[in-house]
Batch of 2 targets.
Target 1
Amino acid sequence: MRGVFLLGLSPRVAAALGLFVAVMLALPFFVNDYIVSVLVVVLFAAYFGQSWNIVTGFAGQLSLGHALYVGLGAYTSAALFVHFGLPPWLGMPAGMAVAAVAGSLIAALSFRFRVGGVYFALLTIAFAEFIRILFGHFKWVGATEGLFLPVANLAHQDLLRLRGSPRMFYYFLLALTLGALGLSHLLLNRRIGYYWQAIREDEEAAQALGINVFRCKVLAMALSAALTALGGGFLAFYDNNLYPDTVFAIGRSVEIITAPIIGGLGTLFGPILGAFLLTTLGEAMTSLTSGVEIDGLKQWLYGAALLAIVALQPAGIWPWLRRLIGLEPRR
């Protein structure tokens, strides 16, 4: 036995992944609605983190404005649903296309004029802020007054229109997260994945080896933007209301990047682990500080915990945990 499955996973890793999937599938049957809603937040963070991880963790291009693609996906699918009655399953691919085009244009303009590193990161923030201000004056999508999706009190789950309980969204988001995990694994073990990692480690050396660096970086940005927009579409139908200052907020971009960094940037399971850790930590801080009337105490404690994690495990929690439980790949 060669110890390699169809997806290239060792038996131990495949068993751990299977156990995780089984637990996640069964969990909603044993917890209350509040826990399910928290798990939905976790899965949103995990999925967005995986999407961002492609362009930054794999290809090494730091984007700090990914809220732009969340908003484009959310507003496109929601507006098509509200104004034309288009089901989200048709509106979300349209949102992915819009975000992919936007991501490609931003990347192409940036990389063509050799805008990289921290300057590329600032440019992504600038574009996100520009679109936020633009949508704040765009009356067709509600401008600053917001865009609201019609909500019906349904006794059943309407899968066609994504109208239903948090449990329905939980399973959709679990499928999205696992799909993104599988796609990331597939990409990393294909030529494009090796190209991205070579660019991340040494762009000039990669170019010297004949890799089309420009095309690879634009592709990473386009794919990351499209996947992020897909999550934005689900977010729109889960929240049922959209405001430019919320959807495109810089704070959302920070939330997207935090889980992969804490979990392990450039790793497959890091964004998922980081999402669970950060959401659990946030809920714990809320409980601990609920009876203490000190302004900002939760934020101080939360920040101190993040600083401790980064200081103790600068590469992220997942690489350390992987070694601890014996899932380190054999050489």
Note: The first helix runs from residue 11 to 26.
Target 2
Amino acid sequence: MKNNFEALAQNVSLIHEATSTAAKGAVNQLLTVRNWIIGYYIVEYEQHGNDRAAYGTNLLQSLAESISIKGLDRQMLNTCRIFYQRYPQICDSVSRRLKTITSESHPAAPALPENVLPTVIENPNAICDSVSRKFELDPEVLITKLSFTHIRKILPIDDPLERFFYELETIRCGWSVRELDRQIGSQLFFRSGISKDPEKLLQELASDQKNALMPIKSPYVFEFLGLNANETVAESDFEQAIMDHLQEFLLEMGKGFCFEARQKRIVIDGDYYFADLVLYNRLLHCNVIIELKVDKFRYEYFGQLNSYVSYYKDCEMVEGDNPPIGILLCTEKGPKMVEYVLNGMDEQLFIATYMLQLPNKDQLRNFLMKQKEEMGI
């Protein structure tokens, strides 16, 4: 393959034309193939192009302007480049599909020159062998089961294990692109990784959508607070750390949260009480009262939260508001005690755990290998 800019632009154009013509009933698969090959050409040019210095950091913009193909702008070309680097293992499958595109089964597709196709499969294992195969999907499964729109959502994730998790669960659960995006945003990978029963957690997510607007996570991950999980943390320090990182906290809580009050004074029977945090969710149109605890769940904590929620329902709701929600955040919770406490209680009360540091991934690795074997992929 010639390593000059004109050859790069020509190869990208040829690959685009060939895959577009042959697409028909396999648009997504061929789009994936096209984008991987384009990424390959760009990386090869960056490494070996004999005139690459003339384009430098403007390479992708210059290439986009030169080929003038709708949808292949500078940003998309960079996505193709990352795709090639993230998924070297699909090189053989891509090569076979390119040969199919140029065979008699697709007579309308333009023939690719001999100096284009062979370079794609030249020493295919050189890059593939540089990464672990243990947590990879079979290349054919990746291409046939995931659309490139799904893949594009997963590409920004640096950790190969985390990417593998979302690939596997998207296929297993049949997630739409929107649902995949929601699960990535809710940090499902980390919540599954530290769950005592990750399989049960994923089953519940697949079957229960009643809290779709504001899913109650367990655990929440508050690593951004900068608190050491191995040291004693006072509730006041925990609360102050949240206020210092309020934006990150609201994003971790979910969609639509707005801050309303800290240490909100409540008067009941002439006595003063103070709710740790009061938020408002503009999607649910209700207040959310949060109690922060730096130890494991105790039943008296729940009674305290229930009183605050009842007070808000009776005294603070205004026209247009829905009943308030209460969330008790603690370091751990016994499943039986939680079951007994919640029995017969208002469905607007929740008990959730949080973590100050991210978990060890060994448990999740074992779980993913089991899932992969059960799916036969």
Note: The first strand starts at residue 220 and ends at 221.
